[in-house]
Each structure stands twice: as C-alpha cells, then as structure tokens.
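Narrative of accomplishments. A recurring question from our advisory board has been how the design workflow behaves on a single, concrete structure rather than in aggregate. To address it, we present the structure tokens for one chain from the evaluation set, followed by the sequence designed for it. No filtering or post-editing was applied between the two.
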C-alpha cells in the first residue's frame, strides 16, 4: 500500500511543479527525481510518450533575452534533442547533459522544444527583446522637458508621449534610429501638445522705381518741288521721316508724313528743312505693402485688385462660340507659415501685376490688355520680426543708333545737319521684402483703429455746447390743443386723499411731464359739440416727486459732464495723431527729397560719363577714318607710280 501511494504522490508533485513553473520566467531550474518520474509512469500504466504529450499541453515556460545577450537554462534532465522554430531569432547550444546556452540574435518570439533520455518533452517560449534602457536614458538626457516613452514591439521600437513642437518628433526618431537596423523600424506615436493655436502676421513690401530717358536728333534738307534753277534735291539719313516728291497728276508737290519738331521753308530760296530734336524722361514709382494673418501650418491668400475679361473661342467649324473668361490682376499674396519655437518657416508667393495697354492685342474688336507682372516664390526660415529681401532686380539697358552721310557728316558743326542719332536708356530697380511676426494670444493685430476717411462724416460737438435741437416733424395750428384728456373735477381731491409716497410709474410720468421735450404728441381733433377745451388739472409736487426730479436733473448733468470729458479726450487724441502724422509726413518728404537729389546726382554723373565715352568714341572713329583715308591715298599713289612705270616700260619696249 505504501509502495502504491509513494508513486502517486511523486507524480502529483511533478504535475504541481510543472503548473507552477509554467507561469514564471525560468532563469534556473532544479533537477527533478528521475526515479519518481519513471515510477509514476509505470504505476499509471502509460508509455514513455504519454508524459511528453501531457507536457506539451501544459502552458510553456517563458525565457526572456536581450539582443546580443546569452542565458543559461538548466533543464534538470539529460538532454537528447533540442529544436527551435527559427534560428534567426535565437539559437541554443548544449553545454552539459542538463544545461543549455541560449543566444539572442534578433527581436522576436519563438518556441523551443527539449527532449530528455526518457522521452519527456519540455516546451519553452523564448522572447528576444531589444535593450531599451540605454535609449530611454538618452531620451531623458537629450529631451529633459519632454515626455517620451520607449517601448518594444517585436522588431520595432515604439515612441509615445507628448512633445512641445513638431520638429522634436523628427529628432527623437533620428535618435531611436541608431538602435535599430533600419529607420523604418521606429514607430512614432508622439503628439504635439495641444496648446492655443499660434498665428503669424506677414508684412510684404514691393518697392519698384523705373526710370527712362530718350534723345532724338536728326535733320532733313529739301528743295521745293520746282527746285532751284531747275535742280531738285533732298538730303536725309532715312532714320526719321522726310518729305517725298510727288509729280503724279502732272503737278509737282511734296508729301509730308511727319513734320517732326521743327519745320522751316523759305519760298524765296525754294529751300526747306525739318528737324527732329526731342528729349524725353519718365519716372515710375510703385510701393505695395499687403499684410496677412494666418494660423501656423495653414495656407492664407490675399488679393487686392480686380479681373479683366478675355474672350476665348470655343468650338470648331461653323459652331464657333466666344466665351468670356476673367483673369485676375493686382496685389496677390499666398503664404503658408509654420512656427518652430521662435522661428517661422515660410512658403511665400507674392505677386504684383498691372494692366499694360501699350502692349494690348486687338482681336475682332476686342482689346485685350497685357500684364506687367512682378512675382517671386520661395521657401525660407526667418526669426520673429526679421526683415529679409527675398528677391530683387537691377536692370539697366542702353540703346543708341546713329545714321550719317559719309564724309560730310564728319564735318564739325555742319555735320550735324547730315546725321541723325537716337538714344534710349532704361533703368529698373525692384526689391521685395518680407517681415514675419508671431502674434501673441493677446495681440491686437495690425492696428486697433480704422482707416481715416477723406472727409469728416459728422462734425464733433464742442465740449461746452450741446447738440442742436432737431426741428419739429409737423407744424400744426393746434398748438393750444391739450395733449392730454381733461381731468375730472374731483382729481385734486382724490390726489390729496392718497398717500404722499407715489408709485414709480406715477413719479416717472410726472418727471416726463415736467421735463422739456422736443417731440410733441398730436392732439386729437376736437369733436363738433365741444369747441373750447377744458383746462388741464394742476397740483403741487410732493416731496418724493421733487426728489425724483432732482435726481433726474443730476443724472442729466453727470451724463453731460461725462460726454464732455469723452469729447475732450477724443479731440486731444485726434490732435496728437494729426501731429504725429505731420511729423511722419515731413520726415518722409525730407527722405524722398534727399533720395531724389541723390538719384539726380547719380544720373547726372552717369550721363556725363556716357557723354564722355561717346565723345571719346567719336574721336577714335575720326582718327580711324583719317588713317583709312591716308592708307587709301598712299595706295592710290603707289598704284599711280606703278602705272607710270608700267607705261614707261611698255613705251621703251615698243620703241625697241
């Protein structure tokens, strides 16, 4: 009996130990009694495989490792075979008959089966994880003010928590990428703290100055249609329009397409001249300053201008139709701000366009204007209230054309009548500047006042006067008519019998009756029977009514004083604003005057340099032409000497 109880007791003990050990992490395990296990199996009448199947049904033990680390597992029985579901995650090596060495390779979870000599099967769940302790410490060191948690999910590293700005999320991901094989193995669940939305005010300034100068000089000399002593002539460089002789129809006449600037004709001498002498200077200055507020991370758009119609032909063949499409022009601003700490990342696209009718196109009666456009598009990052010129243009162009009659056109002074010259200079300066400003939650924005009107709407009332009384709406002859119904004769007696303290409604009615009013009620038309109205009832005021009347007068006086103080303050503020505006206008005028004077000096200097260069070029051209003429004369002389020698040789040969 004792021999039968002992194996049963030993088998129960093994089962209890297996159940208890299945819920714990196995780092080391004591060796069980193999004799008791064999005895229990023999007593139960089962084969050696039966305990293995029973062990396979029991929940497996868990073994946790770190990547790159190793652990020793004591099985407790002689090991005959070991099997792993994946050798890429971990591998096992038998170091002794009852001991395994497990090495962690990659993050993951696999199953490990161990058989002993008795055929017993043991199952283990091997979990290989990353060592995230160092990563967590590094996150706390690098981002001490942020709440970042690090977790492991298979091969991935999961970051969770909240950060103060969006760029910190990318920085945290880059730090965690150093602990994994690929950056894609980092999963971020970080969120930006949901605070009040930040807004950005963008100020954009377009400043453009365009200057142009043109000089035309030329002359044409001609005779009358009859000529001088029968000789008809005309001298022109063909650069400017000159008169044309016309003898069609048997009559000699001159045709003028352009009289130019000066026209002179002498009938006595039958000689005329037309002169083109013109100088033209132009200045164009444009300044646009659009302002726009947008929330961080959202796009904003602004347009101050209009639309012009453009006809568009649609269809083909006989089914043609003209539709009108409107194109926008004016001052446009598109930008997307993103606030990063005290910096603003901007995607900005400002544009200024104006209608250009000088380059317009006329199509089937429609005049379609062109557009002069100044546009820039960029992406940059600026500090708060930092001004930066994002684009600029400096364009200088000079075009000069000269035509002359060779020889006579080079004669000093007189040669100006036989040559013409046209010069065109253009200068354009353009700059686009932007200034972002991060608005505080309590910011008032750009301004807290409205734009000033061109003229005053209503004149303010002086502090020592009241507003004038409006005239009556109706002028009626019934001024003597009573506005109230006649009171009964017993009304005074009834009023004396009532208590001395009146009701609020009665006091208000009494005060209203005693207070002067500009509005009168229309009296009802008297009936035909009664021609004389009854006199209105009157009685002395009570003490409470007198007090109510005094309070009403006092409140009226206080209101008038408060209104006077408010008007005085408004007047003082307006005077102060006008003074500041006058100082600013004066400063702007002085600055503009100084800029104009500087520009005039620079332009005069440039003109003098250009004139000097032109004179130098003319002198060089004259020297070159003289050299060419001298070379031609020398060549002609040599040719003449050679011809004479040839003639003399030919004459000698002929005489011989």
């Amino acid at each position: 009996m004792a021999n039968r109880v002992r194996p049963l007791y030993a088998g129960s003990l093994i089962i209890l130990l297996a159940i208890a050990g299945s819920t714990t992490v196995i780092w080391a395990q004591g060796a069980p009694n193999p004799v008791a296990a064999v005895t229990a199996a023999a007593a139960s009448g089962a084969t050696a495989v039966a305990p293995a199947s029973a062990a396979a049904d029991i929940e497996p033990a868990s073994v946790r490792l770190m990547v790159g680390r190793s652990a020793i597992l004591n099985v407790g029985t002689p090991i005959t075979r070991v099997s792993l579901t994946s050798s890429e995650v971990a591998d096992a090596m038998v170091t002794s008959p009852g001991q395994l060495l497990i090495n962690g390779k990659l993050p993951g979870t696999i199953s490990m089966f161990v058989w002993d000599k008795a055929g017993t099967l043991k199952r283990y769940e091997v979990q290989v994880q990353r060592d995230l302790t160092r990563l967590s410490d590094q996150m706390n060191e690098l981002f001490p003010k942020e709440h970042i948690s690090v977790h492991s999910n298979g091969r991935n590293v999961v970051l969770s928590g909240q950060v103060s700005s969006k760029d910190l999320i990318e920085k945290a991901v880059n730090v965690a990428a150093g602990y994994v094989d690929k950056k894609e193995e980092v999963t971020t669940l970080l969120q930006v703290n949901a605070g009040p939305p930040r807004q950005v005010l963008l100020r954009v300034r377009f400043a453009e100055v365009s200057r142009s100068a043109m000089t035309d000089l030329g002359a044409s000399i001609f005779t009358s249609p009859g000529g001088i002593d029968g000789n008809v002539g005309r001298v022109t460089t063909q650069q400017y329009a000159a008169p044309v002789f016309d003898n069609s129809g048997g009559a000699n006449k001159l045709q003028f397409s352009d009289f130019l600037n000066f026209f002179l004709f002498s009938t006595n001498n039958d000689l005329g001249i037309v002169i083109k002498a013109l100088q033209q200077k132009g200045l164009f200055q444009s300044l646009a300053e659009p302002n726009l507020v947008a929330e961080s991370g959202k796009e904003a758009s602004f347009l101050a201008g209009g639309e012009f119609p453009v006809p568009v032909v649609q269809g083909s063949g006989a089914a043609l139709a003209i539709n009108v499409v409107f194109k926008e022009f004016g001052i446009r601003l598109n930008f997307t701000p993103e606030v990063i700490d005290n910096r603003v990342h901007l995607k900005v696209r400002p544009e200024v366009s104006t209608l250009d009718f000088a380059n317009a196109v006329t199509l089937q009666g429609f005049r379609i204007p062109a557009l002069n456009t100044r546009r820039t598009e960029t992406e940059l990052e600026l500090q708060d209230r930092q001004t930066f010129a994002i684009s600029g243009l400096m364009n200088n162009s000079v075009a000069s054309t000269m035509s002359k009659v060779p020889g006579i056109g080079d004669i000093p002074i007189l040669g100006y009548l036989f040559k013409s010259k046209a010069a065109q200079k253009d200068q354009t300066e353009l700059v686009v500047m932007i200034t972002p400003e991060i608005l505080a939650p309590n910011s008032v924005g750009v301004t807290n006042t409205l734009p000033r009107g061109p003229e005053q709407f209503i004149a303010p009332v002086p502090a020592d006067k009241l507003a004038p009384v409006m005239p009556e709406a109706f002028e009626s002859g019934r001024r003597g008519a009573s506005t109230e119904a006649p009171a009964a004769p017993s009304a005074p007696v009834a009023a004396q019998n009532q208590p001395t303290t009146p009701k609020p409604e009665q006091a208000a009615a009494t005060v209203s009756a005693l207070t002067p009013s500009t509005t009168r009620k229309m009296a009802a038309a008297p009936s035909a029977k009664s021609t004389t109205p009854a006199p209105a009832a009157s009685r002395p005021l009570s003490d409470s009514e007198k007090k109510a009347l005094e309070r009403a007068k006092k409140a009226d006086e206080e209101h008038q004083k408060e209104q006077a103080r408010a008007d005085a303050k408004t007047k003082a503020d307006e005077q102060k604003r006008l003074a500041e505006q006058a100082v600013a206008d004066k400063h702007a005028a002085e600055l503009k005057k100084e800029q104009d004077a500087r520009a005039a000096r620079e332009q005069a200097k440039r003109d003098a340099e250009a004139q000097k260069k032109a004179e130098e070029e003319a002198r060089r051209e004259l020297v070159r032409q003289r050299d060419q003429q001298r070379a031609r004369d020398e060549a002609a002389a040599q040719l003449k000497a050679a011809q004479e020698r040839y003639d003399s040789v030919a004459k000698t040969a002929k005489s011989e």
